[in-house]
Every structure is written in structure tokens, then in C-alpha cells.
Design goal:
341 residues, alpha+beta, Alpha-Beta Plaits, Double Stranded RNA Binding Domain, 3 domains, eight-stranded mixed beta sheet, 11 strands
Length: 341
């Protein structure tokens, strides 16, 4: 396609083709790199056997472990074929009903995702955070920057349920808390999402929370309400009101895009009466700390007993299982459709 003389007649389509080629090239090069590494290790292992070199054999074993991890990562990325899976992510956490209990749970989830990002070499930035009255947070918005951040984190969208003995209950009773997680792709500037200035209500206020002693002197924080949809976004992490407004508009654009995509999905769902309605608010996972310790993903059936590790950011097993299930469902639907056609 690129070799055709009229390829650049449509710049927008040409850019899409070039982006697709880059993705394919990256995938091929990644596989080739690991294939070559495996071949090199085969030769090294043969030499180690011939010379009875235990040290060389140990090096091969370490290298194979790295190759296995790299191939697992490549396989995961092959499951991420959505249009914006490769993009950065915008994550929003809301505490549910229940006051301090749910607000503390929301803070625990925030830490869990920040730790996941750190362990997977993603950079994060907290855009907005609203502290709870006594403990925890009411809501938090942060960005996760790095390749496939959205593709991986979209697996976490939904309601997260915590069961534990409350540290805030004098009688040490068991409490159930809820918090919701929303993830939006950080969409590129060329994505067309129309925002009418007349549809926006823009308020400024003094920032609160960490760093307040530096930013509270001026009304630098910005809150934008999109009147037709009722979507509210806010940003207070920058000292400049202009930068906060730009970031808030960026988040609003992402949320409006996601709303458009959700409406499209719901229309498709209505045409297929036997399919379950997609709902962002569905409960996806339970974190049980009492009377036993277990984390269960209700979509994939994955159970994990090491609760502390998961709350410290070890989420890849859940994400991988979810992506695998979605990939399998996609293949079934598309293959069956191809056979019918």
C-alpha cells in the first residue's frame, strides 16, 4: 500500500497505515529477537554440555528465564488489538457509599495501582485527589504513561469489593466496602471529539491536599462541567491555572470519547438480545481479608491467596486472565461470523 503512487493523497489514511505497519514491525522484531536469543542459548548449552561447564549452563538457565518473561509479555501485547490499547491511560477511582470505610478502601486501591505502575515501569502523575473527612480519599484521578498502559488497565474497570474487620469500628465488626475504577485512553489530538465552549461551565478554586502550602495562594485549580452530559472533571496538580485547564480539557475529551464508544457498544448490544448488557459499574473482584484471606476475580474465576502481594501491585495475573478471556471470546465471535459468511 505504501509503495502506491497515490498513497499520500489522503494524509489521514496514510498515517493510519504507517501506524499499523509500525505495530506489525515491532511485533515481528520482538519475536525475532527472542527467537535469535533462544537459538544462541541452544548453541551455548551444547557447548556447556560438551565441556561440562556448569557455569555456562547456569547462564543459559538464567537467560531462558528472561526469554520466557519476554515471550509472555509479547503474548500479552498480542491480545491488545484495540485502537487505543497502546495509549497512555487516565484512571479515576471513586469511593462508594459507606463513608470512611469506603474512602479508606479507595486510598488502598490508589496505592495498589501506583505500585503496579511502578513495578511495570510506567510513570504516574496524580492529577486530582479529594481527601476523605477522616481517612482515605473520596476520589482520585491520575495518569499512567507508557506503552499499552490503557490496554492493560482497562481490565480493571468496574466495582471492587473489600471485606474486612474495620480498623475504624471500635467493636471490631466486619464491614463490606465498595469503590469503583474507571479507565480512559489518553487519546491523541487528531481524534475528533467535538466540545462546544458554550456547553462548558468552568470554575476555579484553591487547590487542597498535598502541596497546598504552595498552591493555595491563588485560585489555580480548575473544575469543568460538561453541561449536556453532566460530566465533571477537575485538575489541581499544577500551579498554573492555564495548565490545569488544559489537563482538565484533556481528561474531558477522553471521557467524552469513551462515552461515545460506550453508546455505540450499547446500541450493538441492543441488536443482540441474548448478550449481556455492558455496564461499567459491574462488580469485578472481591478482596476478602476476613474471615479468610482470598482475592477472587468474578469474571475469570481466578483466586489468589496472597492478598498482601496483590494489594502491593501484583495484578498481572488478573489482567492476563481477563485479556485472555476477552481474546478468546473475540476469536470465537469473529471466527463463527466468518464461517457463517
Amino acid at each position: 500500500m505504501i509503495s502506491q503512487p497515490d498513497f499520500w493523497n489522503n494524509n489521514e489514511e496514510a498515517e493510519k497505515v504507517l501506524k499499523q505497519r509500525k505495530l506489525l514491525q515491532n511485533g515481528i522484531e520482538s519475536w525475532q529477537k527472542q527467537f535469535q536469543a533462544l537459538e544462541d542459548n541452544k548453541i551455548l548449552f551444547q557447548l556447556a554440555q560438551e565441556e561440562n561447564d556448569d557455569q555456562a549452563a547456569n547462564e543459559v538457565e538464567k537467560s531462558l528465564s528472561l526469554i520466557e518473561k519476554a515471550i509472555t509479555q509479547i503474548e500479552l501485547q498480542q491480545m491488545l488489538q484495540g485502537e487505543y490499547d497502546e495509549n497512555d491511560a487516565i484512571v479515576v477511582i471513586h469511593s462508594g457509599a459507606g463513608g470512611t470505610e469506603s474512602q479508606d478502601w479507595a486510598a488502598m486501591l490508589l496505592r495498589m495501582y501506583l505500585r503496579w505502575a511502578e513495578k511495570n515501569n510506567y510513570s504516574t502523575e496524580i492529577i486530582d485527589i479529594q481527601p476523605g473527612e477522616e481517612a482515605g480519599i473520596k476520589t482520585a484521578t491520575f495518569t499512567v504513561t507508557g506503552k499499552y498502559a490503557y490496554g492493560f488497565l482497562k481490565a480493571e474497570v468496574g466495582v471492587h469489593r473489600l471485606v474486612r474487620i474495620s480498623p475504624f469500628d471500635f467493636n471490631r465488626r466486619r464491614h463490606t466496602s465498595f469503590a469503583s475504577v474507571f479507565v480512559y485512553p489518553d487519546i491523541e489530538d487528531d481524534i475528533q471529539v467535538e466540545i462546544n465552549e458554550d456547553d462548558l461551565k468552568i470554575d476555579t478554586y484553591r487547590a487542597s491536599g498535598a502541596g497546598g502550602q504552595h498552591v493555595n495562594k491563588t485560585d489555580s485549580a480548575v473544575r469543568i462541567t460538561h453541561i449536556p452530559t453532566g460530566i465533571v472533571v477537575q485538575c489541581q496538580n499544577e500551579r498554573s491555572q492555564h495548565k490545569n485547564k488544559a489537563m482538565a480539557l484533556k481528561i474531558l475529551k477522553a471521557r467524552l470519547y469513551e462515552l461515545q464508544e460506550k453508546e455505540k457498544r450499547q446500541k450493538r448490544e441492543e441488536l443482540e438480545a441474548n448478550k449481556k448488557e455492558i455496564a461499567w459499574g459491574s462488580q469485578i473482584r472481591s478482596y476478602i481479608l476476613h474471615p479468610y484471606r482470598l482475592i477472587k476475580d468474578h469474571r475469570t474465576g481466578i483466586d489468589v491467596g496472597d492478598v498482601d502481594a496483590v494489594l502491593d501491585g501484583e495484578l498481572n495475573q488478573f489482567i492476563q486472565a481477563y485479556l485472555l478471556s476477552q481474546s478468546t471470546n473475540w476469536k470465537k465471535e469473529n471466527l463463527s461470523g466468518s464461517f457463517k459468511n
